[in-house]
Specification:
about 240 residues, mainly alpha, 10 helices, globular
Length: about 240
């Protein structure tokens, strides 16, 4: 609205913009508290057997739910241990392109996900997509989220606000905890750049306080010959 009024004033359609001095209230986004591996495992156990692999796969691949449900059998590289994200399942049930060009990516396939997906396909063969519902049609994420996932969240004793997107948060937090770079995490998630990863998950990067102290102590010691290695006592 502010930009519309500003353009109207520049075009001399109005004398001045009524939004010129209006400041929006500051909005603080709550810090993400990711699910632990134990919580994700409990959630998978609470799922109906037919849909258990979806929880394991999303947590182990970090895909958006639309990307996960849009996977096709040929997207799984069993020999290379990689998953190729090339489509997403749209709300009309049709396959379409991923959210952004950077969302088209190859994601490493962990062994535990490969084993889970392999066992799933041996029992429930793929159709048009990798995952099928009882009648063989693709799993729609509105139905999956409201009727399957939500019930499993309750049965697993997780917060009621838990959604499939929280598995994507868990994936990112596990990579950061293992020392993976922010740039690599952004690539795995299909983000345009690392900025969103930093703003969303920066507080989850482990050991940043210790690294800050060591860096500052080292810099101070290097510039002051009177400071010992410990940076406490003077000669």
């Amino acid at each position: 609205v502010r930009s519309v009024f500003k353009s109207a004033a520049l075009d001399r359609l109005i004398g001045s913009s009524p939004a010129a001095r209006i400041t929006l209230p500051r909005h603080e986004t709550p810090r993400i508290v990711p699910l632990t591996a134990a919580q994700v495992q409990a959630l998978a156990e609470a799922m109906p057997e037919r849909y258990r692999a979806l929880v394991v796969a999303q947590a182990g691949l970090g895909l958006r739910i639309s990307e996960l449900l849009g996977l096709q059998p040929e997207d799984i590289g069993w020999l290379e241990l990689v998953v190729r994200v090339r489509h997403q399942l749209q709300r009309d049930g049709q396959l379409g392109p991923p959210k952004t060009p950077r969302s088209i990516r190859d994601v490493p396939l962990p062994r535990f996900v490969a084993d889970e997906v392999s066992a799933h396909l041996a029992r429930w063969p793929a159709g048009k997509t990798l995952w099928t519902a009882e009648q063989g049609q693709p799993v729609r994420h509105d139905w999956y989220g409201a009727h399957v996932f939500k019930r499993a969240v309750r049965d697993a004793g997780l917060p009621a606000s838990t959604s499939p997107h929280d598995l994507r948060h868990a994936f990112a937090s596990w990579l950061l905890a293992a020392g993976e770079s922010v740039v690599a995490v952004a690539e795995r998630l299909g983000h345009e750049n690392a900025t969103l990863v930093l703003t969303t998950y920066g507080h989850l990067v482990p050991g940043s306080e210790d690294r800050t102290r060591r860096a500052l102590d080292a810099a101070w010691s290097a510039s002051d010959p009177g400071v010992t290695r410990l940076g406490v006592e003077r000669l």
